[in-house]
Amino acid sequence: MGRDKFFDFLAEHGLQRKRKSKRAHTTNSYHFYARYPNLVQDVTCTGPNQLWVSDITYVYCQKEQQFMYLFLLTDAYSRKILGYTISANLQASGALHALKIALKNASTPIEGLIHHSDRGIQYCCEAYTSLLKRKKVRISMTQDSNPLDNALAERVNLTIKSEFMEHYKEGYESKKQALTELPRAIAFYNDQRPHRSLNYLSPTQAHTKKGELKKMW
Q1: How many CB atoms neighbour CB 154 within 10 A?
Q2: C-alpha to C-alpha distance for 186 and 84, rounded to whole angstroms
Q3: CA angle 182, 118, 47 (to 5 degrees)
Q4: What is the pLDDT of residue 21?
Q5: How confident is the model over 163-186, as a mean pLDDT?
Q6: CA–CA separation, 58 and 23 (whole Å)
Q7: Closest among 69, 32, 55 to 123, alpha carbons compared
């Protein structure tokens, strides 16, 4: 039997080993919770804690052949990651925990703050929106699946994965390594990485400023 015929035989009888996908879907917008309008289309931030953006990304763990999910909440003015959670699942508790950390870490009053996200179930569920309302945070959401509607959050995800995971293109060796390396990457991103869009300040430095930050590009 030749190679091609052999592979046809394996496929016909379900004997081929299927490679596990290293891509994950993080957004489920098919739910019964209320959606909210997009409030940030014409918003320009002049200081921290005026607009927070949130998103979820993922990393692959080779040993367990599973994904770990990273819930991020970022200040739009300073690009500082104010809250994050590393979770083995996509349950809303991960997003809620990141939000609680961000609220705790807010260094200035959050009066008038807008929280922007996609329309995933984690951000639309009752527990999440109720906490935002109790804190008098205005809720804003994308209106479709266009990544440009939440571009800043997408860029932060890309920076963390492209710059701080370049040695782990096939994923982390294990969940244990992910839980060790991701907090280190976020700490470096916040405290040491200069941003051309922030006049070469780090996000932590920019978070103490007010007024327009000069873009160096």
Answers
A1: 16
A2: 9
A3: 75
A4: 47
A5: 85
A6: 8
A7: 55
